[in-house]
Amino acid sequence: MDHLTRRQFGRLSLAAAIAGAGQVAGVFPALAQSANPIRIGFAMALSGGLAGNGRATLLAYQIWAQEVNARGGILGRPVQLVFYDDQTQPGLVPGIYTKLLDVDKVDIVTSPYATAMIAPAMPVVMQRNVTFLTIFGAGVNEAFKYDRHFNVNVVGDNMKETYATGYFEVAAMLPAPPRSIAIAAVDNEFAQKAAESARYHAKKRGIRIVYDRSYPPSTVDFTPIIRAMQSGRPDLVFIASYPPDSSGLVRAANELRFTPAIFGGGLVGPQLASFQSQFGPLLNNLVTWDVYSPEPTMDFPGVATFLQKYRELAPREQTDLLGNYIPPYAYAQMQTLEQTLTRIGKIDQAAMAADMHAQEFDTIVGKFRFSALGEWAEPRNLFVQFQGITDNELERYKRPGAKVILAPASLKSGSLRTPYGAAG
Amino acid sequence: MDPDLVLLLNGIVSGLLLGGLYAAAATGLAVSFGMLDIVNIAHPALMVMGAFSVVLIGTALGLDPLLVAVLQAPLFYLLGILIYGVYHHFFEKRGEEALQGLAFFFGVMFIIEVGLVMAFGPEQRFLDPPYAFITWRIGEIDLPLRMLAPALLALAALGALHLYLKRSFTGLAVAAVAQDAEALRLMAVNPVRIKRLAFGLSVALASIAGGALVVVQPVDPSSGQIFIGRVFAICIMGGMASLPGCLTAALLFGVVENVTATFYGPSWSPAVAFGWLLLVLAFRPQGLFGRMA
Fold it and tell me: Is A20 part of the contact surface with chain B (CB cutoff 8 Å)?
């Protein structure tokens, strides 16, 4: 049975890969004739639970590749993306990277999305001493300490101390100092680290933790969690969740008329167009972690142009319609690669790593440097608040004002409204 | 009222409503797995396919998702007949239904999931009827219509199926084929035809469960995965071919999950719920309402 099942899986994976390759050929018809391209290989979640962000990431890469090729490529060579669907199964990732490096013999590898998929690729990449530029990992290199790992993500090195800083800066804006907090996190690495950061800051500020639980990703009904939180009457609620559960938690909070002074935390989901379209006004006053908002304080050169291009292609590619979450960072990841290669003038893994350690990168998500562990040297966790949402239209999220930035102070674009559940 | 008592009562009520969704998801499987002995591991994927179809049709025509789910059920019945035809021809007829049949349904599940990603993309899809944002409050008890309406539809579908199986000739034949297909043949009834019909019914029920699922939560192509363990556990706990057993087990599962989540944390919910399954099987191996062979 195992043999047959694997074979079926293999055939379908092949079909998916061919379909994926077909997409690339469709976007870059000239590539088939190009000699000696720079081949960039990666696994990406094109099906399974992480596929929403995986496909958005791929589209950003494709836009970048098209632009680079239109400019004549890098080092005079066109770029070619070689990718396989990891089906959001970490177990498939080592095999894909082995194939990319040993069989396909790609020149450069970048990572899948995200932490849970990056970690299983690390040993394969490290054995071959390859520079590994990753996207939206969270503390993956804390364990490996690989000096050729570089991660494009705002969380930075010390997630425990830095991730929730902005959330508690926002809490400090409340008219009365908050005295209690409820914390809930889904059982995965990113969310658990986010919750750990919330605990760290709550204790540091003397805020009493009245509820602190994890929940499995298979949870269907979230009303017991919200009701148990509600019974503790917390001033603050910090939730670290992924899209399916974020949806259930926001819905349950509204059904139970839960109105703490601040409701939010590290929810992944409200950043996405499908979530915003579904919940509309229910999002008002939600304070949550984010990476980008089209506020004047984040109007970095090139980001608006990229998003316009992305949004034109997104409906056809059936991916997130707005692209306000991962796509600008995925594009910036490829800009990082391009800037390194252009500077060193050759494909040399050691030279690439040395350059990434030494240089500053100027991208559509701003300027950044990498730390010794390859994370952003200066973390930039945004905490935003949904405000003034009156309907389910998505147009408002293309303009400033719908998702104002409350923290960090350097990017602040609005003032806190409270409590959650009040009209935005 | 005592706050702990309020929590307990709400935990029970929300658990019963959640159990309604589980019953919707498990009823079709009680027919295919419980009565026909077909390990249709693709049942939750078919449910999600039904949910996507509900979103598509409901959005286009502006209809209520539960109504669409019922209206599209005949199409899924035909799909079920088609799937059973393939399964019977390539596996059951050759006596290879045990392991290779399981692999077949595993493949069906995977094809449905990848097909949905290809057709609709991996994003979450939703279709919220207006009542999904209404919560009735009876004293201290909350009754969100988002959970209540699907639970009532599940009960109605289960009741209709129960009546059909008990009162109609073909329904009785379905029950008979579950017990002894050869005896049915001696009664001049083609067991393959009856099984085809019953499998079609089970897939039609998956479509109705898909409508219930859309009202409860947004769906993505992989949403069915979290239901696989639960629906099989419910069928086994209820007693395989027993519909009342399926309903009781589903409600019990929901209540145990939610009360545990309320008082001991949601991490314990699956462990305690599946612990109940083990307990039931230890003392009643045939399930709550099953009969000893």
Answer: no
